[in-house]
Amino acid sequence: MAYNITGIIDNSTGFLSLVQGVNTGIMFGYLGILILLIIFSVSLMAFLLGTDEAGKSFIAASFIAFGMSMLLRAVDLVPNIALFITLILLAGSIAFGLRNN
Known about the structure:
Layout lengths: L4 H7 L3 H11 L5 H20 L3 H21 L5 H21 L1
Helix pairs in contact: 1-2, 3-4, 4-5
């Protein structure tokens, strides 16, 4: 499958429109979700290395992922369902984290 990268670059007026064009034209809407998963994974690993408590690390990583999903939704890089999934992930991690304490 050939991608019209030149058309995406020519139609973009700035960095945000270029990323949105790549998201829709090349990545079929999965670029924002991939960015969100990478941010969650890296923050979870960083918190796990910094502390011995997995529950608190998961809560912190879920909070960061929810904040980033709101930002990525504001610039139209993730669908609404990604925002709702991270909200449920945050609520679930807080509920299970508080239950263990």
